[in-house]
Amino acid sequence: MTVNRQQLAKILELLGSAHDGEALAAARRADAMVKAGGENWASLLGVPTSPGSALDAAPAPPQPAARRRSRELTSYEMLMALLQSERTPAEVKKGLRPLERRLREGDISDGDIADLRLMFSRYVTGTKVT
Fold first, then answer.
1. The predicted structure's pLDDT at residue 51
2. Cα–Cα distances in Å, from 32 out to 25, 73, 87?
3. Which of 5, 51, 56, 117 is the most exposed place for a label (fewest CB within 10 A)?
4. Other C-beta atoms within 10 Å of 77: how many?
5. What average pLDDT does this structure show over 14-29?
6. How far is CA 25 from CA 11, 49, 116, 120, in A?
7. In which region does residue 123 sit, left (phi positive, over 0), alpha (psi from -120 to 50) or beta (all else)?
8. E strands within the chain?
9. Beta-carbon count within 10 A of 30 CB
10. Least confident piece of the model among 6-10, 21-25, 63-67
11. How far is CA 92 from the centre of its chain?
12. How far is CA 96 from the centre of its chain?
């Protein structure tokens, strides 16, 4: 398995966000992508390692999905989950791209957030909202 470098680059761009939660979520998502791809950061970046170093160790296996969080997900976390979900149709993902930009810029309306929550419930959690 390999790391989708274009997707990783987009996620890494969010590390410069003024919103600490977004930057942290991006860092965690990037790290999870690298490990899920069977790589580590040193190999991905082409950094030579000495035999037996911590960087040379096999990557940690992907962690099982955590139980439902006790806190509410941020709009950014819901958006990222929608974009990563295999259940989200391609045309919906395409429509979410402008929302991603507006979310980063802080130009998101309450209606957009409500739509985001509805799509998250439908495509990520699989619950039907009427």
1. 64
2. 10, 18, 19
3. 51
4. 17
5. 85
6. 9, 28, 17, 17
7. alpha
8. none
9. 20
10. 63-67
11. 16
12. 14
Structure tokens at 57: 């160790």
Average pLDDT over every residue of 111-120:
88
**Which residue matches tokens 């030579």?**
48
List, for residues 52-103, the tens digit of each pLDDT value: 655 555 555 555 555 555 567 888 888 888 888 888 899 998 988 888 888 8
Give the pair of three-digit tokens for residue 107.
Answer: 């130009």
Tokens in use for 77?
């976390």
Phi, psi of 121, rounded to the nearest 5 degrees: -60, -40
Distance CA 103, CA 109 (A): 9
Unique residue bearing structure tokens 């296996």: 61
Determine whether 129 is exposed, middle or buried from the number of CB atoms within 10 Å of its CB (0-12, 13-18, 19+): exposed
Six-digit token string for 15: 């590390």
Q: Rounded CA gap, 62 and 96, in Å?
A: 27
